[in-house]
Amino acid sequence: MSLSHHHLNTNILPTLSATIPTPFPLVFSAPIVSFLSFIFYSPLSLPSSPPIFSPFPSSLPTRKKMATAFSPSKFAAQPFPLNTTSQNNPLTIPTTASPFLGSTRKLIRLSSSSNLNIRRRSGTVVAVSDVVKENKSKSTLNLLITKEEGLELYEDMVLGRAFEDMCAQMYYRGKMFGFVHLYNGQEAISTGFIKLLKQQDSVVSTYRDHVHALSKGVSARAVMSELFGKTTGCCRGQGGSMHMFSREHNVLGGFAFIGEGIPVATGAAFTSKYKREVLKEADCDHVTLAFFGDGTCNNGQFFECLNMAALWKLPIVFVVENNLWAIGMSHLRATSDPQIYKKGPAFGMPGVHVNGMDVLKVREVAKEAIGRARRGEGPTLVECETYRFRGHSLADPDELRDPAEKAHYAARDPITALKKYLIENSLASEADLKAIDKKIDEVVEEAVEFADESPVPPRSQLLENVFADPKGFGIGPDGQYRCEDPKFTEGTAQV
Ligand SMILES: Cc1ncc(C[n+]2csc(CCOP(=O)(O)OP(=O)(O)O)c2C)c(N)n1
Ligand SMILES: [Mg+2]
Q: Ranges for the Dehydrogenase E1 component domain (predicted)?
């Protein structure tokens, strides 16, 4: 039976901590995290001055040429000689024209009135690049994917989109508390990468994590219930939107503090290598993917982890989801060299730029990078140029970004693009795709129904897993602190 969302009771979700005296900060409880997040995330705290779309109208450098193939092997073997110049560096690849950030160039010129001088690094770009060539051939022999693969990618992207469109509805109906950040528009990245992984491989995400969890196989029910704060959620309702976690699927967390997940991912990759090389578990070839945004790349943890990953040749792929904005801060305005992929070669690993609105191109690059990690050849930095179709979070009215820019990227919707490819290449019919849309609608409806009917966590769960030594903390079913119970002898933590 399909649930009519118009009839959902919007008042059944009390914020647990609101009714309970809390003598200590509940570091990991969803409401408090949400509160902290509010301080960080609130669009209300942004300066009220009009947005400056870009500070540098005409001073962008002449675009360099980019290489025509992703060729990480060029980076795998030899170290960079210290005295190598860009002329004689064997790793320097002549570059060809690329659409990189060029997509916004016109808009930048149009909308910018500021005239800041931007000092740019000169010299040849030392980087491999995207340009997984589009195959124009109609022959099925030369297609980038099989029919089955195409349908799987389509289904996963539609799941991500439909699931989150539903999240927006539920959020505005008061079913979710805290902040909720959607991934609309960026689905090609999650799908293009994660659908190539094995169960044992790990994924680390940010607060924009629902779709990564879904792509990795966490059920729509478990993710929706987590968003609803219910016991059936993948963190038993204790994590909420920004903290998806699944041990079974090796989703090692969504992280609310930017850059926080990158060291965790680096540690997971280190674990794989340690198991294989030190503990001699020969079949341990697990790969870790770390997803994070463009703004996060200006954070120190990014650089530290790139260094360690390259130094120890860890099986990790750093996937930058460059949606050109960090809340209301333009990437071009905040970053000394906006071409993030170029930072890979600075640490001795390949850096690749790819059109993140094209799932097939993302997938081709992902195959190379994941394969490289699995073969023990070390890390790769992949920058996916993308765009979020909604505000930073559902609390953001999204008034800062230029409508022309939004329209520009809306026309590149990755789902529409894949649909077109599948139909034009006779890999799927309209009817095939409609059937998938319908199936996903049902999955999402059912997930909402399930989440809505699931129980809220008991009060006693509120302080679980918060303190290293749980003795003395926790609230019993009677609402009293367990430590005040004379019979209290055991800890309260249960996982
Ligand atoms: C350490 C830290 N500093 C600041 C913030 C506040 N903050 C939340 S999101 C965000 C922008 C991140 O932008 P980006 O990395 O591009 O990711 P996107 O939201 O675009 O996916 C910032 C600065 C935070 N969460 N953590
Ligand atoms: Mg961003």
A: 156-457
Q: What are phi and psi of 170, to 5 degrees?
A: -70, -35
Answer whether 291 contacts ligand 1 (Cβ < 6 A): no
- How confident is the prediction for the chain on average, in pLDDT? 76
- Give the model's confidence band at 395: pLDDT under 50 very low, under 70 low, under 90 confident, else very high: very high
Instruction: Flag the least confident range among 73-82, 139-148, 189-198, 455-464.
Output: 73-82
Would you give the distance in Å from CA 180 to the centre of its chain? 14
- Go through the domains of the chain in sequence order and give each one's CATH number: 37-453 (3.40.50.970)
Report how far ligand 2's centroid is from the alpha carbon of 99 (Å). 18
**Given the DSSP bridges, would you call strands 380-385 and 351-355 parallel, antiparallel or unpaired?**
parallel
- 374, 285 contact by CB (below 8 A): yes
Cα distance between the two ends of the chain: 33
Q: Can you give the pLDDT at residue 460?
A: 78
What ligand has the least distance to the C-alpha of 36?
1
